[in-house]
Amino acid sequence: MTTKTSYVSKSVEKLKPSGIRKFFDLAAGMEGVISLGVGEPDFVTSWTVREAAILSLEQGYTSYTANAGLFDLRKRIADYMNSRYQLTYDPAHEIIVTVGASQALDISLRALVDQGDEVIIVEPGFVSYVPLVELAGGVAVTVKTKPENGFNLTAEELEAAITDKTKAVLLCSPNNPTGSVLEKDDLIELAEVIKRHDLAVLSDEIYSELAYDADHVSIASLEGMRDRTIVINGFSKGFAMTGWRLGYICAPVEIAQALLKIHQYAMMCASTPAQFAAIEALDKGMEDVTEMKRSYRHRRHYFVDSLNEIGLECHTPGGAFYAFPSIRKTGLSSEEFAEKLLLEEKVAVVPGNVFGKGGEGFIRCSYASSMEQLQEAVKRLKRFVENHSN
Amino acid sequence: MQLRDWELDLLRVLQKDSRLTYEDLSKMLQVTKEEVEETVTRMEKDHILVRYNSVVDWSKVEGHEGVTAMIDVKVAPKRGVGFDEVAQRIYRYKEVKSVYLMSGAYDLSVTVEGRTMNEVANFVSDKLSTIDSVLSTTTHFQLKKYKHDGTIFGDYEEDKRIVVSP
Ligand SMILES: Cc1ncc(COP(=O)(O)O)c(C=O)c1O
């Protein structure tokens, strides 16, 4: 009998485990850790939203919903997209409710990419992008963005990365991990290049509610962009609903119907109680969103100013809840920095290189923590930087 | 008084945590330390910032005794001064923690704190009900405090997030 080396597919075998996992394992066993390593709100979902899910269960709504999601929810999403981002989508045919933005990304890439197609990805960027492109059979072409441009992709950088194999561009604004925001003028320039090369756009707007200095602009709302753009959003970040696993896709009818085919076979539909909760979130939750955003904004200012004061140079992130300071001053690599900081000072951060090579020399710190915790973290970081600068 | 955006934010932030330093506040609100200091001083003078409070859960402190009662008071309003005069007479007592004019079944809602039930009872019978225009009182003793001034009492919910996540 011959022995197989592995039953696992080559495409999966090739995937690297997430660098975040490693730091999770390292920090998990330690006590007294102040965590700036979390990519989620420190608020609990609003009570009214939680209560709506409980009520739906009490009333016995425990079966599948339509593949694309409860029609009531899709209608609310359509209204929300319209009033917040000036985008019109038909709730019957152009909106799909998904299991988080994560599943939305997965099926969007599978729907767009043929074997060997190139997808342009901004680096530093969210950890799932490259693996998801590769799992879909595509080739991830990463473009390193620069701190002096606020980690924003410029039209020239985009243009330079395009080949005749390029199928799509994946944009994320506000960005995880850098907090950078593509403002309207930036988007217009990018859109020109995208239209000239007839590319599709995947726009991950999961942090759209958390843009602090200027209103969020969706690239799909620019002229000539709607029909080539898949907008991905969800409830995780803005509505503090990460555990509910609820996101959605808005796309022109042809693409949306293609996406729905994958979604219906792979997932059937998103969780029913979560969908009822999401209806309540859109109906009654906006005030809480405003309140949470205000609180993040204050903490952002405090934390970013403090980082700069202790010599960890940091641009002011326009959105999300991450600061992405440079650690160059210490001469340590981002992994060394994060590991030593955890062991010596018990502060957990995420090394920048897990978000791609473009993140080397930086660390990601989430400021979605109480002011008390942030103040203590600043104290410890200061001591750490003093001990490690030459 | 018309306040600027950052001044409103200052009030919101201080209301949640009055122990923040001028320096921290200046960073949070992106104004200079001097501006924060000046504005706080002005708001204190204008009685917008009235007091910095600590919220204490006395039920956790061993040996601490105390009772709180909320008393519904019916009042015959006086010509010319309405309810104001009697409200003033009531709130001057140090046992009285708050006085509100209410619509509905009674007129004033008075919160009284004492060391014992007896002490509160004596206050009601000797002081409160003997005031000329007080027609009747209904006393409710508080049994347990669940939430006070926007703060939930009891054990704080801990952070349920895992330490590192995407
Ligand atoms: C940029 C980005 N996109 C998508 C996601 C996934 O969000 P969801 O919880 O909706 O799956 C995250 C979560 O960290 C993220 O940071």
Automatic annotation (TrEMBL), chain A:
EC number: 2.6.1.-
Record-annotated Aminotransferase class I/classII large domain positions: 32-381
GO-annotated molecular function: pyridoxal phosphate binding; transaminase activity
Domain of life: Bacteria
GO biological process terms, semicolon-separated: amino acid metabolic process
Family: Belongs to the class-I pyridoxal-phosphate-dependent aminotransferase family.
Protein name: Aminotransferase
Originating organism: Rossellomorea marisflavi
